[in-house]
Amino acid sequence: MELLLDAVFLVNRSGTLVYVSPACEAILGYSSQELMGRSMIDFVAKEDRDRTIEESKLVMAGRPRIGFENRYIHKDGHYVHIMWSARWSEEHGMRIGVARDVSARKRAEALQRATYSISEAAHDAADIRSLCKAVHDTLGTLFPIDAIVVATCDAELRVWDKAYQYRDSTEVPLLDWTQAESLSTHATNAQEPLWQLIETVPDTDPTTDAVHVRTEPLSLDALHDGVEAARHALAVLPMHTARRAVGTLMIYGPVKALQAEAAQRLLAFVCDQTALAIERKQLIDDLYKAARFDELTGLPNRRTFGEFASEAVRRAQRTNGKLALLFADIDGFKDVNDSLGHATGDLLLKEIGRRMKAGVTDCGFVARHSGDEFVAIVQDAEIVERIDFAVNRLRAEIERAISVNDASLTVRVSVGVAVFPDDGESMSELIRVADQRMYANKAARKSGGASFLERLM
């Protein structure tokens, strides 16, 4: 029996290991002496413990079992997949189990599942966070993960965003975002994994309970220099596509589990697949934004405004509510482009859009209609009742001096207002009325006559 490549276990009624054959050391890394006298369930992956206990009950009830599979934790910290054949000896009060290491087969199957699940997530995930959660779930079935962070970056600006974060418990050391950004930048620039030993260190001040996170570089060679299996490492893995850097995958877990050859191959594969999926998601998001938002001001475009405004009118019809549509045009904007250049004109439009959004956001919705024209929906009933005063305040804010390229510019804005349902019961009617009143307002201001708003007052 001691020459068998499979390991033989004898377990008593209480779950204590009474005998373990020498083959166990090649499978789990523990010698027979290290295991005997200890509870078998302590070495089972925590996610598999409940069903392992249920399986043990079936065996002790007298039902021989063949082919049950679960995961054990190797002395180094990585998962080992075991297939069991077991029976109960009532005469000896022992459960006899033969354990076969099927990790190689499981790794091959896991790679196939990872390929499928990540591809599926890339297709089905509603956003990047959902994609990252699917990647986390996939990796969590392959080796222990105490914490994971996915950071995405703007390849040109190198601005980092936290797309996803998880940690198993509050006892797991957590880098602050500044540290995470710094390590991500380092790994991305080097285009190779960055390994750090990481641990919490209590504050030296005995009057506080504060803790700090300390990191130190870890090289692959350190594993052969006696790094304890119990220590944990942070692996910062850069994610690149053929076109650009996409982000980093940061995983915190047992050093030897993460740096096992099989784990590194799998992580490299996952990083490649995740990078492509994130890039596709970002391109889709960019296309969506380009289709629905104005590139210059960042405001919703005419199409998006039309959808929102039509829904606002339908809602007002159902509730017998009121709303106001504002149509604003910058007077003489062409002269700004002709005299100061289009770059200055663009800066001016961006600032006007920002001011208009700030003035309306709390009570409505602003969009860039076209060129130097902006539109807004005001839904607050009290403001609609006093829309003349609201528009005058908005106009005063827009017409404040604007600093552009060290020059101080002032503009005038013509505004037309249409109120639902007084001036129309459809969005097309409201836009037509507001547009007419805006041009009437512009003409009246040029001639010095009373504007529409002034006549309202």
Automatic annotation (TrEMBL):
Ranges for domain GGDEF: 321-455
InterPro entries the record matches: Biofilm_reg_signaling, GAF-like_dom_sf, GGDEF_dom, Nucleotide_cyclase, PAS, PAS-like_dom_sf, PAS_fold_3, Rev_trsase/Diguanyl_cyclase
SMART domains in alphabetical order: GGDEF (SM00267), PAS (SM00091)
Pfam families with a match to the protein in the record: GGDEF (PF00990), PAS_3 (PF08447)
Gene3D superfamilies named in the record: 3.30.450.40, 3.30.70.270, PAS domain (3.30.450.20)
PROSITE patterns for the chain: GGDEF (PS50887), PAS (PS50112)
Limits of the PAS domain: 1-63
Cited PANTHER family: BIOFILM ARCHITECTURE MAINTENANCE PROTEIN MBAA (PTHR44757:SF2), DIGUANYLATE CYCLASE DGCP (PTHR44757)
NCBIfam families documented for this protein: GGDEF, sensory_box
Protein name, as recorded: Diguanylate cyclase with PAS/PAC and GAF sensor
